[in-house]
Design goal:
This protein is mainly alpha-helical and 114 residues long. The chain has 2 domains: 53 residues; 35 residues, no CATH class. Helix content is 46%, strand content 9%. It contains 4 helices and 2 strands. The longest helix is centred in the first third of the chain and has 20 residues. The chain is globular, with a radius of gyration of 17 Å.
């Protein structure tokens, strides 16, 4: 792939990711609606996030943790038994499926919170 083709592909995915983040859809639902494969979306999300390293704090600062507010707009009887849990951290949305790696999810949430 030429440098020009790679740059064009990168611009296409920047637009796609902006569209995905602006939507209220899960990654799977957004990809289905846009005739794309979910693994491609996750690949490009990771690729772009690696170009924006997390903010580092000075060595002398102390670490503080903030709690996340949670609003539940349905009664328990209205909620179907989910096989996928969506976790939203800022603009990022993660699909957590049965058998997920809790340590990995913790690391990702921590990285996005810094």
């Amino acid at each position: 792939m030429t440098k020009m083709e790679l740059q064009s592909l990168r611009q296409i995915w920047e637009t796609r990711i902006a569209d995905y983040r602006a939507s209220s859809l899960s990654g799977a639902a957004w990809c289905a609606a846009n005739d794309l494969k979910v693994h491609q979306l996750w690949y490009w999300l990771r690729k772009f996030s690696s170009h924006h390293p997390a903010k580092t704090t000075p060595a002398t600062s102390t670490t503080s943790h903030d709690w996340v507010s949670f609003e539940w707009d349905k009664s328990p009887s209205e909620i179907p038994s989910p096989s996928v849990l969506l976790v939203r951290v800022s603009q990022a949305v993660f699909e957590v499926t049965p058998g997920f790696n809790p340590a990995l999810l913790n690391d990702v949430v921590h990285a996005l919170s810094v």
